[in-house]
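Quality-control log, excerpt.
Job 1 of 2 completed; input and output follow.
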Amino acid sequence: MTDEERRSRLGVRHGLAPSTRYADPVAAATGLTALHTTEVASVPLSLRARVDGVTVDDVRGALERDRSLVVQLGMRRTLWTVPRDLRAAVLAGPAARVAEAELRRLAKDVEEAGLAADGLRWFAGVRDATLEHLAAHPEPLSVPQLRAAVPALSARVVRGTGRWTTPVWVATPVTTVLGARGDLVRGPNAGEWWQPRPTWTTTERWLGTPPPLPTAQEGYAELVRRWLWTCGPGTEDDLVWWLGSTRGAARAALAQVEAVEVRLEDGAPAYLLPDDLEPVGAPERWAALLPTLDPTTMGWRHREFHLADGVRPGVYDSAGNGATTAWCDGRVVGCWVQDEAGVVEVVPLADVDRASRRLLDAEAGRLTRWLDGVRVTNAYTARQRKSAPLP
C-alpha cells in the first residue's frame, strides 16, 4: 500500500476532492466516523469542507432539531459529534472506559476536599438529584443553571498538581461522568456557533428511550470497522491512539472485524477491512482548508504519509493536536489564519506549485465568504499567528 494510494483514499473517503463531496451533514459525519468537537466551531467548519452549500443552520438542524447527530464524550476523553446510530458503540466501549476513570478521580477529589467520607456514595446522591431535576425540566439547562437548582453541584474540588492546581465547580466533573455514562446528553449550544455554551438534558428527553448497549467488545469492533473504512490502512498504533484504548481491546476488535494485514510503503504493518483491498483510484486535484482538530488532521498517530517536509511544527503541537491546515492532493502544505477583518489567508509551510496555490487561494476565498466576517480563534490558531511566516 503506497503513500500515494493512502493519499488518494484520504481525498475520496474524507469527501475532500470536489467529486467526492457528501450530500448532507449526517452523511459526512458517517463517512468520517466521528467529528472532533473539543472546539465547537470545528464541527461546522469540518462539514463545510465536505458538504457543498452547507450552512450553520443545516448543522444545527442535524444536532438540535433532527438530533441525527449527537455530541458524546468518548475516545481519548474527547468530545465527538457522531451519527446517532453510532452513539451506543461509543458508550459501550471508549466512553465506559472514560466514565470509570473519571468517576474514580471525582470520588477521590470529593473525599480530599472534605465534601464526604465516601466519594462514590456522594456521587450517587448528586447524580440522582441532578437527573431528577433535569427529567422534570422541559428545557436543557446550562451548568450554572444546574448549580442553582442542585446546591451540591456548587461545591468546589481542586484539580491539577503542584503549582498548577485550581479549584473547579464540582458540577463540571459530575456532568463529565454522567455524559460519559450516557445518563445525560448535550442539548443545544446556547451561544453563537463558534462559542462553547453547552446545555444538558436527560438522554430520554432528548433522544427517547435509548437502544440496548452492545458489549464493550462489540462497541470497539463497530468503531474499528468504521474507522478502517474511513482511515484504512491504519497501524495498530494509529488505532490505539485514536480510540484511546488498550492495545488488547484494539487487537480484539481487529480480529472481530477480520481485518487484513497489509504493508505500508515504509514496511510497517497496517490493516484494512477484508472487502476493501482494491485501490480507490486517484481523484481530481483538490485543495482544502480544514479547521483545528479536524477528523482528517487527527485521523492517525503516524502522519508522515500526509505531511509535506517541514510542516509538522507549524500545524501540530507537542501533544499531537492539529491546528488549522491547508491541504493539496492529500498532503498538508501549510495552515490558514484570518486577518482583523476576518479574511482567510493561506500560510504555505512547504513549496507548492502555481496550480496548487491557485486552488488554495480559491478555497481561501470560499471560506472567507462562508465565515462572513466571523473570526474563529482558539489556542491553536493563536500559536500559528505568532509562529507561522506569512507568504
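Job 2 of 2 completed; input and output follow.
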Amino acid sequence: MKLVKRTYRFRLYPDESQKQLIEKTLGCSRQVYNELLSLCKKEYEKDHNFKINKYELIKLLPKYKEKYSYLKEVDSIALQQSVIHLCDAYRNFFRHNSDFPVFKKKKNDYGYITMNINNSIRIEGDEIQIPKIGKVKFVYHRKLPESFEYSTVSVSRIGKYYYVSLIGEEEYQEHQEHSKDSLILTNSIGLDFSLANLFVSDSKTKTNMPKFYEKSLTKLAKEQRKLSHMVKGSNNYKEQLLRIANLHMRIANQRKDFLHKTSRYIANKYDYVFVEDLDLKSISERKEELKLGIFVNDLGYGTLLNQLKYKLEWLNKKLVKVDRYFPSSQLCSPKLWC
C-alpha cells in the first residue's frame, strides 16, 4: 500500500443566499490579496532585497477586518490562504520561477481555498458542510474511499456552475502483477508529438484527436460578436460573458475527457512509455508566429503527459523521457510529422 494524492470534485447547488456568500468570500479573498500585494510592492520598490513573511502578513488581517467590517462575514481560513498564495507567488518571483505577482481581477477569480479543521467540512447525505456557507446540496456521484483523508478544500465557480474539490491523500493498492521486477521492456510504446494528431506512436499509429477548440471557433466568434455590441457592465453583457465562459468550459471538459480515456488506455496496456522531453512553452510561442499557438494548446499534450506520469506510477510502471534532440520524428514517421 502507498499514499497517493487525489482530488475529488463535486457539483454544488447552492441557493441564492449561499451563492452570495461564496461570491463575497471570493471578493474578500481577492481584496486581501491585492491590499497586501500593494503593501509588498511598495516595500519592494524601496528595497529590492525585501523578503516577505507570511506570519507577519497574517497578523495584519485583524487590522483589515477592523477597517473593513465585511471581512468578518466570510471564512477566516480562506483569507489566510489568500495570504499564503501571495507569499508563494512572491517567493517564486525571487527564485526566478515566475514574474512579479500581479493584482487579481474579478473576471479571472474563480475560487478560494479553505481547510478542513476538526471536521469543519463534512459530507452529510446529499449535502456538504462548508464553513460560513452552511450545508450545500451537491451531487455525490461517487463514494469517497475509506482511506481518503482531505485537509484542503477548494470552492470554485466556472461559468454559472459551482464546484467543491476535496484535496488529500488515499491508500492505493499496488498491483502485484505490475511489480517493477515483472515489467517487460518489449511491452512498450514510443509517443512522438504531432500537431496534426496529438501524437504518433513508434508503430506509426495516430490518435486522430478531435480538435474541440478548433471545431467551436465559429460558435465562439458568433458569441464574441454579440458581446461586442452590448453595453459593458450591463446585465445582458454579464449574461453573455457567462454564455462564453460556459462554452469554454464545455470545450475544456471535452478535451479533458478524451485525454483521460487515452492516458488510461495507454497506462493499462503498456509497461514502458517513451516520450520526448519537449519544451512545450517554446513550441507554443514559436508556433504563435505562424498563428498556430492556439492549436498547439488545444491538443493538451502536456496534460496528457502529466496524466500518464501519475497513472503509470500508480501501476508501478514507467514513463521514460527521451532527450529532445533524439531524432524520434524521423524514426517514427516523417510523413506523419507536423
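Post-run check on job 2. The chain has a mean pLDDT of 85.
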